[in-house]
């Protein structure tokens, strides 16, 4: 069987590995706990939020961006640097390796070029301006994490792809050579250059089209270099398996957790700020970087609510946050103070600068 339009049909070794996974049952992957997408409880209040709060779900003005290009010409002195390019897309410079996570450079998180969630801001650096990459990490196959035009543009770089079990079928369908794809089941690992990647459990779901729900696996990720160790949540709800991640891998230098696109009635498939702090504690603490917000309108909350709520709660709980501006190439171990840069957007909209006459 060759890959379908959505790349969700398997054959050969990939099919054998999918069937052998403990998470695969009755033709689909599953969470350890019986959790899935969908509205939990009465849907009427959720519908009310959908229709009444739309204006606050997008920024009232331009989102501030920085250019990382000049900084990228120098290696990080500490050996570890992060550039947040938007949503869950980051360039990690980790002990000599450059890793691009969940690359979405397209205008929309959607299968359509003319409809679907449109980005709030430009990507701070173009695909063409990225430095040489050692690996591309794709956590799972949702459109806000796996962008077909972006993958097709990366093909010519001949870079290694690391992803969850089954997602390689999408990548092959988009032109990535099979020998450049490594697919991992939970707790499996692979090494690319100096960095060891481990696929760790997450609580989410997958699918890119009608009929392919949960045909591919989703995962969180541990990346370990010679001196630094980081955790990337991908998409996940709160799961007790994070305790086991901490037990096996120890303390992290940076914990990157999704905080946006959440709602209490959506069950346990996303974290949100409150559960992100619980997940952070389960993972053993360390510096916390919120991701998966400020780029696409994927939830019912105001666009900046994830950051505001997290900042307030993290301050109360004395958790160290790492909140760089979009595009800023920053070394987390040299980070001193989180600044609420997102407030500048509202302040600028409320107090526009006067236009000077000639």
Automatic annotation (TrEMBL):
Ranges for domain Metallo-beta-lactamase: 98-293
Entries under InterPro entries matching the protein: Metallo-B-lactamas, RibonucZ/Hydroxyglut_hydro
A Pfam entry, by short name: Lactamase_B_2
Record's GO cellular component terms: cytoplasm
Protein name as it appears in the record: Metallo-beta-lactamase domain-containing protein
Lineage, top ranks: Bacteria, Pseudomonadati, Myxococcota, Myxococcia, Myxococcales
């Amino acid at each position: 069987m060759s890959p379908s339009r959505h790349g969700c049909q398997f054959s050969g070794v990939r099919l054998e590995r999918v069937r052998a996974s403990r998470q695969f049952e009755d033709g689909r992957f599953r969470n350890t706990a019986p959790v899935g997408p969908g509205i939990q409880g009465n849907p009427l209040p959720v519908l009310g939020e959908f229709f009444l709060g739309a204006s606050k779900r997008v920024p009232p003005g331009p989102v501030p961006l920085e250019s990382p290009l000049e900084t990228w010409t120098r290696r990080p002195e500490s050996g570890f640097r992060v550039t947040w390019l938007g949503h869950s897309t980051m360039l990690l410079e980790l002990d000599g390796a450059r890793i691009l996570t969940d690359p979405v450079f397209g205008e929309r998180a959607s299968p359509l070029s003319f409809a679907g969630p449109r980005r709030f801001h430009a990507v701070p650096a173009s695909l063409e301006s990225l430095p040489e990459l050692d690996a591309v990490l794709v956590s799972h196959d949702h459109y806000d994490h796996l962008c077909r035009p972006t993958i097709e543009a990366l093909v010519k770089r001949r870079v290694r792809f690391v992803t969850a079990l089954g997602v390689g079928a999408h990548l092959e369908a988009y032109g990535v050579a099979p020998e450049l794809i490594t697919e991992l089941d939970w707790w499996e690992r692979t090494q690319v250059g100096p960095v060891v990647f481990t696929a760790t459990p997450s609580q989410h779901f997958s699918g890119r089209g009608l009929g392919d729900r949960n045909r591919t696996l989703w995962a969180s990720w541990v990346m370990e270099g010679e001196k630094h160790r980081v955790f990337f949540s991908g998409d996940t709800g709160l799961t007790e398996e994070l305790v086991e991640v901490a037990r096996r891998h120890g303390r992290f230098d940076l914990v990157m957790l999704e905080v946006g696109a959440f709602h209490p009635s959506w069950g346990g498939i996303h974290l949100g700020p409150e559960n992100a702090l619980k997940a952070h504690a389960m993972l053993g603490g360390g510096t916390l970087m919120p991701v998966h917000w400020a780029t696409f309108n994927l939830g019912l909350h105001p666009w900046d609510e994830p950051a505001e709520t997290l900042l307030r709660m993290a301050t109360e709980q004395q958790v160290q946050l790492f909140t760089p501006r979009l595009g800023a190439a920053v070394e987390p171990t040299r980070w001193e103070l989180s600044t609420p840069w997102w407030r500048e957007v509202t302040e600028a909209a409320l107090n526009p600068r006067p236009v000077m006459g000639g």
